[in-house]
Amino acid sequence: MLGELAEAVRNRDVTPVELVETALARIEKANPSLNAVVDLRADAALEEARRHNGEGVLAGIPILVKDLEHVRGMTTTYGSLLHAEDPPAERHGGVASRLVEAGAIVVGKTNTPEYAWAGFTTNRVYGPTRNPWNTDKAPGGSSGGSSAALCSGMAPLATSSDGGGSVRTPASTTGLVGFKPTFGAIGRSAIPTWPTFSMNGVIQASVTDAILEAGVIFGPVAGDVNALPGGSIPLDPTLPSRAVAVDTFKAQVEPAVMESFHRVLEIIEVTIGLPVELRERHEPVFDTDPTPANGWLFMAAAEMAQRLSFAKGREDDLDIGLRLMIDFGRHVQAADYIAAQRNRYEAARQLDNALGEEGVLLVPTANANDWPAEGPLPAEIAGVPCSPLDSMNTMELNYTGHPAVSVPMGIGPSGVPHGLQIVAPRHRDDLALGLAAALEDSLGWPTTAPGYEAFPLPRGGAWRVDSLLGWWIGAPCARRAMCRAAVGGRQVTSGGQEMPRDSLATSRVAL
Q: Across all residues in the chain, what is the average pLDDT?
């Protein structure tokens, strides 16, 4: 869709003003029940659209920026009361700058949990973001504002970042494609909260659009010691030669997730023709002490505590979950941090050996079906008590630096999608994208949640959402009766409705 929209602008079939006006209208209609977009720059965006030259890879495309990155003239709150009254930024952040230089126009900002600490998207500045597939549920985190905006068709592009799964989990829970590249592929213009793990990524409705967006934002920046040279990561989809599958990196998986996982493995073998080696639980990919997830936690908590050391004395202004993480991080000893750092090398070696040079690893993106919009993450999975870290199979890949793509693979009992995570060797992102593209061709998946229309191409008339596959149909999509949204401080209420089963097949929304 991104390429077609930009081409239409370059060919003068549609104007940047029309695209920006469409995005603003769609945000006004869909956002009150979702609270995905938390601030707008409508006047500035329209003025930029009027002056736009109609050129660029992303010519005239309206975009949303996750509220962890600066946008000129807008306050970056980081979802935190500590920054709610900060002055507007004087310049765009690195990724926003690259997108704008490619012709995009920023129309607003999307919600994030405070300092991106959580796998759900809520904070004390703007409140919770809700999943368009079921507004009682979370759209993942920390890029849940962006994933909710995309799968409800508010805008064709919304930025995202990933320090422990914050691209892949939101993509999984909203039926989208989430791409976390090899660590260092996207240079960081500002030092992130988690310098060892955090990077920008891509959430999109299709593999093609994910690759186009990645091509714009890939590349080094001055000051990022981990940045890779430009052009060092291949993005042309390439089918891997082999696949290894594990049903989890943790201990438990919900039955609905497991059922979808094994169904997709069969499709990969039978339809795509790629042999899959299924490992049993007693043959784990990782055998380290601490586990990659616990090593990630030691390091992430310590880095978060240091990042927020300036907030000492203002702890009451922080989310309670973030306070607990900071308190844990303050007690991580230097020896434990360094041991976890050393352990990363062993975990990466074990995964490298499992993948080989042209293999991929398949694992569910999340082990849980879903969780509430307000949080917390599940306290049990498949009836067994668990740690919040057990909900996802994502932070392991931040720990090792490997690229991973989450693609839709099914839908849970509450109507919330779940994803398949495809992990490739470092610097071979093309292999994960190749299998993702093959699955997209084999399965097809809707570009929006039921009841929402994809951002329209300039062809006139209503856009008909592609039907879901028959094996997706059948789970009710509950709608919340009353939702609340905040956009630029404006409080709005909107009534919800029960989503009928038949609407999972074909959905329309009229603007």
A: 90
